[in-house]
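Tutorial handout. Part one gives the primary structure; part two gives the three-dimensional structure as tokens.
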Amino acid sequence: MKKITLLTLIFCTLLSSSIVLSQSVDEVVRYASEQLNGSARFQAMGGAFGALGGDLSSISNNPAGSSVFALNEAGASIGIQSFSTDANYLGGSSNVEKSSFDINQAGFVLVLTNPASKWDKVAFGFNTQTVNNFDKSLFAKGINYNRGLEDYFLQNASGISFDTFDFNNNTDDEYAFLGSRHGYATQQAYMGLYSYAITYDDVNDMYIADGLVNQGIDQTHEYNTSGKQQLYTLNFSGRYMKQLSLGFNLNIYAIDYAAYKATSDNYLDEASSLSQAFFQQDLNTFGTGVSFQFGAIFKATDMLRFGANYTSPTYYELEDEYTEGLETYFVDSTGASQRAAIYPNIVNLNGPYKIKTAGKIQGSAALVLGKKGILSVDYGKKNYGSSTVTLPYADDTNALNSDINSTLDDATYLRVGGEGRIGDLSLRAGYWHEQSPYKNKAIMDDFSGFSLGMGIRFGSGSLDLAYTKSTQEYAQQLYYTGLTDSASINENTGQVVLTYNVRF
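Part two.
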């Protein structure tokens, strides 16, 4: 009997597989992109703080911004984020809404002054904020006249000898053995064969899909994600001659990502031996990343300021855990209805593997109208195509990196923000637009949004409120092989953020 211990499985399963659930171009984009998050003032002005500073979230934008603070300051933000996804798939449409609560941001800045020195001010800061909130859901449904789940398993079985499989072995043991010895695709083929989603024709030495699509397949697809990508920033900056501020950040990222993916097929052709199929996968990805930033803010006049900063690529080390299961209803050779199910009691581990995401450069300008208001602009660029992934095997690494380079491109972004002041009351608005990182805009379109907000100062404290709204259109591909149809997604994101700051 081909037995394998759980300990061995944990070390080996999927190390020998080719690109599996999470290692894809989409994963690189997921961790390289950044939602507009942070303090309420930062969000209300569209994140356009590269030439301004003086806000705790601005530190993560331009590290020189901490030496703009006049006093020590600490603050925190809470937010409620809502997601609405409209999906169109093969003639069917659906909508899902989801909301979540988050401690959006928290941090402090300590300022030291020395009027007798040319370096008249230095500042030390710490800020943490949510970069990406993954708490989303989508649901797609439609009638598929071309392919079903059996095509996913059929494609994975391509090129694999039927002699590889031992159906007399315990299913958990066999599934574990195949994963550790042959990899992910062989596991999928085994599940498809075990559940009769596909069968083997020994006469012609070929695998056969058992489902018929002549009358169509009533197909539903559910995709739920949760978790977040958190940024921790350690900051230092100094001001020279009251005009030039220079700063440095050490950024540490923490990723906790979970995804539940399920597809259900109901075969409408009564002649189909396969009548129903349900396939689910649960993925958890976790790890850390590190990057650094350099930035400068130059006060050209009392009204005009310029900023520039560079953010290095972020270097991540990640691991995956996933489980899966398949259930089918079919008609056997005697004409009797049967049910088959395989839910391996196995946690597959993949990794550690490495991702290097794109760095960025940014230029900024701001017009400061004394105590009356502010107008600020940031413009930057990321080279997503320069991202790389390092997998356990060189062939897999080279194939994926070639795919990244051919699929992704440079992406520029523009952020504009304004603030008007009436005594202790401030009114704010912002707009941002970011190009799609994909060369093919049908995969993901450009991203844009707007924001509104207000703030009030009282004594040593301040209270700020912001509302943001953004939209994104993209194609959600069901699977990377076999069942490769895509749903067209329109995603709308809204957020309300409240921030309290105190100066001391």
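Part three, for discussion. The chain is about 15% helix and 55% strand. Helices lie at 6-12, 25-32, 40-44, 58-61, 149-157, 171-181, 184-194, 394-407.
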